[in-house]
């Protein structure tokens, strides 16, 4: 295995790695905030989150050679806490064991090339739609983090009052970052994040930190110190035997299938948007990337956190120009100091990275122009995949319904040749995933 990277693009890759880290670092605080509600110690989950993000992002960069960050997945941590532990009464240590066995199942699927086979079965219109749908999803996350889009009991969602200092700070950061990007300023996204952070002091007066934004709260800017010792209490605390009971198999399959489709759709969408394909038009270094994702889920159970997965926010670094594994290596290394410096995360608010997320959504819309909208049997499944990703707040749901609608429509109108046997098998997995998430 070689680890050399093109020298001519090294500066761009480093900037891209820092950009990706700034867009994903919220997980260091948000993941412990969610899993601590399952009875796991906040500090222990924080340490596990940093370790997993560091090691698996390095593996993605050095082994799979892709500019994609790996970290504990949002949604998967909510399933761990609210469905497995609180809903089913599973002990946290047993749930960690279920995460481990889900990772082992992943590894088997990866070694047998089942996952890469599924990727190759995704019709091109669905690939284009998933990329654009992920872009809309990232944009929605950015608007939500900035509290620009808020809940509205009358219309489900609405726009916040522009008199809110947080919203004003976000609008300033969005316009500033957009100008920097349009003018092709090197490191424009990072500059936008830094300047928005600085503007949050005099303009915003206060902001929500990563966990507070997730909880919909507003908190004053405050420093919680600089240094905090790592907590390794969750390392190896998983219950491997108890998690193999028959009653836990639905939980293992839920982790496995949800992570399966989440990672597949992320790889496909990011590859389409960033041009990260091989000579056959498939996502670059797919088998190694999927194996890395499987290792992340397995290690998550060992470290003491919810399953790890590829992050859609990696598109921020790709938009900055990241194209090689060096981007993931740099982003992964940025996680490591926060084993000791986690309180410093309060310095950069979520509204500082929100403009980057919104703009990345625009960058990822280009593949949608490659869909033949005049051919409705292709366009309608693609449309469902595109809109359901942001509307359901789930990449998995968009891909699943894209698959199922494609199959049903093609079979009913007599285009059986466009539904290979392998796709029918994938449809069966989709149906299993739908029930597993319940």
From TrEMBL:
Subcellular localization, as worded in the UniProt entry: Endomembrane system
Membrane topology, as annotated: Multi-pass membrane protein
TM ranges: 12-34, 40-62, 69-88, 94-114, 126-143, 163-182, 189-208, 347-368, 380-404, 419-436
Main location: membrane
GO CC, any one term: endomembrane system
UniProt keywords, alphabetically: Membrane, Transmembrane, Transmembrane helix, Transport
GO molecular function, one term: purine nucleobase transmembrane transporter activity
The keyword Lipid metabolism is assigned to this record: no
Pfam annotation, one family: Xan_ur_permease
Record family assignment: Belongs to the nucleobase:cation symporter-2 (NCS2) (TC 2.A.40) family. Azg-like subfamily.
Name of the featured protein: NCS2 family permease
Species the sequence originates in: Spirosoma taeanense
């Amino acid at each position: 295995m070689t680890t050399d990277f093109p020298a001519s693009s090294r500066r761009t890759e480093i900037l891209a790695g820092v950009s990706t880290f700034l867009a994903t670092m919220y997980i260091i605080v948000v993941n412990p905030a969610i899993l601590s509600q399952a009875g796991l110690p906040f500090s222990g989950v924080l340490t596990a989150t940093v370790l997993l993000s560091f090691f698996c992002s390095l593996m993605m960069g050095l082994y799979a050679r892709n500019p994609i960050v790996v970290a504990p997945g949002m949604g998967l941590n909510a399933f761990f806490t609210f469905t497995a532990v609180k809903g089913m009464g599973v002990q946290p240590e047993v749930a960690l064991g279920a995460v481990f066995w889900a990772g082992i199942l992943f590894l088997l699927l990866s070694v047998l090339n089942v996952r890469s086979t599924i990727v190759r079965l995704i019709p091109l219109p669905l690939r284009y739609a998933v990329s654009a749908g992920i872009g809309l999803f990232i944009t929605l996350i950015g608007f939500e983090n900035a509290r620009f889009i808020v809940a509205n009991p009358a219309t489900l969602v609405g726009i916040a009052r522009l008199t809110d200092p947080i919203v004003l700070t976000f609008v300033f950061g969005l316009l500033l970052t957009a100008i920097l990007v349009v003018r092709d300023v090197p490191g424009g996204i990072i500059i936008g994040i830094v300047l928005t952070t600085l503007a949050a002091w005099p303009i915003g007066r206060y902001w929500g930190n990563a966990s507070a934004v997730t909880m919909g709260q507003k908190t004053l800017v405050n420093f919680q110190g600089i240094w905090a010792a790592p907590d390794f209490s969750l390392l190896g605390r998983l219950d491997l035997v108890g998690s193999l009971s028959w009653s836990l198999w639905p939980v293992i399959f839920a982790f496995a299938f949800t992570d399966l489709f989440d990672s597949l759709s992320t790889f496909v969408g990011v590859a389409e948007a960033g041009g990260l394909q091989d000579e056959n038009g498939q996502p670059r270094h797919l088998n190694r990337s999927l194996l890395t994702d499987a290792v992340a889920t397995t290690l998550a159970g060992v470290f003491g956190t919810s399953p790890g997965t590829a992050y859609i926010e990696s598109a921020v670094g790709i938009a900055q120009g990241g194209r090689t594994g060096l981007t993931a290596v740099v982003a992964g290394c940025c996680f490591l100091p926060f084993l000791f410096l986690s309180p410093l995360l309060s310095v950069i608010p979520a509204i500082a990275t929100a403009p980057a997320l919104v703009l990345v959504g625009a960058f990822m819309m280009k593949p949608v122009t490659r869909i033949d909208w005049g051919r409705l049997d292709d366009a309608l499944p693609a449309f469902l995949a595109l809109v359901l990703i942001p509307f359901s707040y789930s990449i998995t749901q968009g891909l699943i319904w894209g698959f199922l609608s494609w199959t049903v429509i093609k079979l009913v109108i007599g285009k059986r040749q466009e539904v290979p046997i392998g796709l029918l098998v994938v449809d069966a997995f989709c149906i299993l995933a739908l029930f597993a998430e319940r």
